[in-house]
Amino acid sequence: MVVVMDLSAGPEQVIAVQQRLEQCGFKIHIIRGVKRLVIGAVGDRRSVNSVGLKAMPGVEKVVPIMKPYKLVSRELKEESSLVKVKNTVIGGSSLAVIAGPCAVENREQLLTTARRVRRAGAGILRGGTFKPRTSPYSFQGLEVKGLELLAEASAETGLATVTEVVDKANLELALEYVDMVQVGARNMQNFRLLRAVGRSGKPVLLKRGLSATIEEWLMAAEYIVSEGNENVVLCERGIRTFESATRNTLDLSAVPLVKRLSHLPVIVDPSHATGDQRLVAPMARAAVAAGADGLLIEVHPEPCKALCDGPQSLTPEDFDSLMAEIRQVAAAVGRFVKGGTRSA
Amino acid sequence: MVVVMDLSAGPEQVIAVQQRLEQCGFKIHIIRGVKRLVIGAVGDRRSVNSVGLKAMPGVEKVVPIMKPYKLVSRELKEESSLVKVKNTVIGGSSLAVIAGPCAVENREQLLTTARRVRRAGAGILRGGTFKPRTSPYSFQGLEVKGLELLAEASAETGLATVTEVVDKANLELALEYVDMVQVGARNMQNFRLLRAVGRSGKPVLLKRGLSATIEEWLMAAEYIVSEGNENVVLCERGIRTFESATRNTLDLSAVPLVKRLSHLPVIVDPSHATGDQRLVAPMARAAVAAGADGLLIEVHPEPCKALCDGPQSLTPEDFDSLMAEIRQVAAAVGRFVKGGTRSA
Amino acid sequence: MVVVMDLSAGPEQVIAVQQRLEQCGFKIHIIRGVKRLVIGAVGDRRSVNSVGLKAMPGVEKVVPIMKPYKLVSRELKEESSLVKVKNTVIGGSSLAVIAGPCAVENREQLLTTARRVRRAGAGILRGGTFKPRTSPYSFQGLEVKGLELLAEASAETGLATVTEVVDKANLELALEYVDMVQVGARNMQNFRLLRAVGRSGKPVLLKRGLSATIEEWLMAAEYIVSEGNENVVLCERGIRTFESATRNTLDLSAVPLVKRLSHLPVIVDPSHATGDQRLVAPMARAAVAAGADGLLIEVHPEPCKALCDGPQSLTPEDFDSLMAEIRQVAAAVGRFVKGGTRSA
Amino acid sequence: MVVVMDLSAGPEQVIAVQQRLEQCGFKIHIIRGVKRLVIGAVGDRRSVNSVGLKAMPGVEKVVPIMKPYKLVSRELKEESSLVKVKNTVIGGSSLAVIAGPCAVENREQLLTTARRVRRAGAGILRGGTFKPRTSPYSFQGLEVKGLELLAEASAETGLATVTEVVDKANLELALEYVDMVQVGARNMQNFRLLRAVGRSGKPVLLKRGLSATIEEWLMAAEYIVSEGNENVVLCERGIRTFESATRNTLDLSAVPLVKRLSHLPVIVDPSHATGDQRLVAPMARAAVAAGADGLLIEVHPEPCKALCDGPQSLTPEDFDSLMAEIRQVAAAVGRFVKGGTRSA
Question: What is the ipTM of this complex?
Answer without folding.
Answer: 0.94
